[in-house]
Design goal:
single chain, 147 residues, 4 helices, 61% helix
Amino acid sequence: MTPAKSSSWFTRFSKVTAHVTGQPASFVLALLVILVWAITGPLFGWSDTWQLVVNTGTTIVTFLMVFLIQNTQNRDSRAIHLKLDELIRSIRAARNRLIDLENCTDEELDRMEREFDALKGARGMSATSGQSGKQAEGPRLKAAGST
């Protein structure tokens, strides 16, 4: 299945920007800009304008990147939720009411967490570590990559 072409210019822009800025070369470029700025300090007599240049530049870049990162995170989170919803829906024994947990109130999530903690306790599992003191009943899934 090939991904559909994004309809929003902002979505396309944020995908490309997230990809480019996540590369080691982008980090090196940013590091070089800061090094050039630091090296030029004595040339400009460590002036307020010299400091203002880097402060303004980094503030603007940070401000804009917050929105791009949030857009990327929202899209990734939505895709993960849809994939998990499909898995929950496809497993006969799964409780379909778990499909929409991201839309629950904090109180509903707390109640669900207590329910899962109780289930872990009933199976001899530590609520915090997830480690079992005895073998849980039912089929066990192999960890990815195990043989």
